[in-house]
Amino acid sequence: MKKLSELYNCDYDIDIKGIKINSKEVEKGDLFICTKGVTADRHDFVSDAVSRGAVAIVASREVECDVPVIMVEDTNNELPLLCARFYDNPEDKIKIYSVTGTDGKTSVATITQYLIGDDVCGYMGTNGRCCSKFNKETNNTTADADKLFEYFYDFLEAGCDTVMMESSSEAFFRGRLKTIRYDIGAITNITREHLNIHGSFENYIECKCQQFKQIKENGYAILNKDDDYYSVVREACSCKNIYTYGKDEDNTLQIVSYDIFPNKTNITYKFNGESYKIVSPLLGDFNVYNLACAILVAIASGKTMEEIIPNISKIEVSGRLDMLPNIGQDFHVMVDYAHTPNGISNLLNFVHTLDINRSIVVIGSAGERDFLKRPLMGKTVTDNASYAIFTYEDPRSEEPIDIINMMIKDIEDKSKYEIVVDRSEAIKRAIDIAGTNDIVLILGKGNETYEKLKTETIYFNDIEEAMKHLKARLEKEKVTV
Predict the structure, then answer these.
(1) Which of 240, 291, 362, 421 could connect to 442 by a Cys-Cys bridge, CB 3.0–4.6 Å?
(2) What is the 3-state secondary structure (H, E, C) of 93-115?
């Protein structure tokens, strides 16, 4: 808690409990800052914020209210500066590691926390924010500044000296991270995504590159040398230390070879002239790369390979290749976060290396997001899977059937799919039609616990829904027998 007079050169001796940019989240004693979003100007919500308990306002244009108003030139620019002052500059007291990329951010960030240790390293991203002391949800992959600095502060209070965070291209585009200076910045890959926000693929790449312009001079950049855009990202690096991973011998960490099994991956990496044979619980060739990236982050943090390797066997990434337990069924059910054409293709390529019969995919595409990728997603699924069930996934203000129709518009073989708009019913349908040694893949949401509909956000979890329908099918089969 701080006085308003400590945050600004003013005579208002008012206690400020917290900083908020969403009027619906305001509590008594908060300072409300009127930032401008893509679709909303928070100056329009001052009366709502005050009615909920805001004791002061920060604005860049005149507003009518009966609490003190601090005028600034640009509230969006002011937000991170204000939050840094309020939380006593936690970003200067904690080491900030970050990963960006189209696919694999959550996996790399989570793996890194395992390798370094959750007693000293916090995680922040799609799966929430957690360390050994707490596990909490977050609303976005990368939080707005009013939350971001609070989270840094919370990790420090919990005894962490490091945070490993996911940094999305949208967060760079929105300016949420412009005051952050990273100690380590890593990247997984770059493929087409979020063009609804960025306008062009070139702009998207530029936002991915922004992370590497914000690494401290003595910090580290961790780059995927096998990615098509390696050279572009390398050009953007502002730090002296560059580590690379990939299959060629000239990489800092070389991926020498790997063999993927249904329950493990045997990998040989080479680092500093030494070969290391590793048994990883992570499946798929994409996870060979994700693990390599995380290992280099841990090495850049000061860990040795000898310290890192024992922690690899402990790794679990929630919502990524989550195989549901067998409770009596003669088929498999898997939940995964894959929601890009590249991520879907990689996952299905891996799945078909396993000893399975058919692959049945449940998939949708998020509303108010990159609509240009939707036909490519749909065709990628039907080209690579045995059968697809198209459904909704966070439709937001869009009509679910409109999104689905965009996904299927380039699919010529209509026998390869069906439409079940309600997601719960789509999951039920997939489980009901699964036969011996089939695999049901429920894609797009991972372990998320919500669905964003037109009028409300409801609780929804793909894993829980799948288990519910799986149990119902088995119970029905018992009765029938």
Answers:
(1) 362
(2) CCEEEEEECCCCHHHHHHHHHHH
**Contact (Cβ atoms closer than 8 angstroms) between residue 155 and residue 131:** yes
Backbone torsions φ then ψ of 85, nearest 5 degrees: -65, -45
> In this predicted model, what pLDDT tens digit does every residue of 61-92 receive, in sequence order?
999 999 999 999 999 999 999 999 999 999 99
Give the SS3 label for residue 451: strand
Q: Which two tokens stand for residue 231?
A: 């050279």
Q: What is the pLDDT of residue 195?
A: 56
Yes or no: say if 191 and 340 are a contact pair by the CB < 8 Å rule.
yes
Q: How far apart are CA 387 and CA 385, in angstroms?
A: 6
CB neighbours of 3 closer than 8 A, spacing ≥ 6? 12, 13, 14, 15, 16
Residue 435 burial (CB < 10 Å; 0-12/13-18/19+)?
exposed
- Beta strands 135-136 and 128-130: pairing type? antiparallel
- CB-count exposure of residue 12 (10 Å: 0-12, 13-18, 19+): middle
In the three-class reduction of DSSP (H, G, I as helix; E, B as strand; rest coil), residue 461 is classed as coil
**Domain boundary residue, one of 52, 86, 120:** 86
Write the DSSP symbol of residue 129.
E
Q: Kindly state whether residues 300 and 443 are assigned to the same domain.
A: no
Structure tokens at 155: 């990790």
Q: Which amino acid is located at 256 in the chain?
A: V
pTM over 0.90: no
Element (DSSP H or E) covering residue 30: strand 30-33
Q: What are phi and psi of 419, to 5 degrees?
A: -115, 125
Mean pLDDT of the chain: 94
Q: Are 208 and 122 in contact (CB under 8 A)?
A: no
Nearest to 102 by CA among 176, 19, 157, 167: 167
Q: Strands 182-187 and 215-224, how do they pair?
A: parallel
- The domain containing residue 221 runs over which residues? 90-312
Check: CB of residue 189 under 8 Å from CB of residue 224.
yes
